[in-house]
Specification:
Length: about 90
């Protein structure tokens, strides 16, 4: 399993009012955004990539896959493959 990186702690965040599923999505989204920014070079490129169908994900939109752990893992795996030059 890939190591996770803690982006920031937000103890007074409004996230406490949201459902556990939404908080999980937000955490996955931020983690993928950090990884995509590193791989693609800019946050703008990463944000665009997240909303564009990806060939390596059977043309699914990466952001839409982050609601589940398995979807998150697929997106993360694709980004890491791109980072190391393994194109699928």
């Amino acid at each position: 399993m890939n190591e996770l990186q803690i982006v920031a702690f937000c103890p007074n965040s409004l996230l406490k009012c949201w459902s556990l599923a939404h908080r999980c999505f937000e955490g996955r989204h931020e983690q993928i955004l950090v990884t995509a920014t590193r791989v693609l070079g800019t946050r703008e490129s990463a944000e665009h990539w997240l909303i564009t169908p990806a060939r390596g994900l059977d043309y699914r939109v990466p952001c839409r896959m982050l609601s589940t752990q398995s979807g998150y893992e697929h997106v993360d795996t694709l980004l890491r493959q791109l980072e190391y030059g393994i194109y699928v």
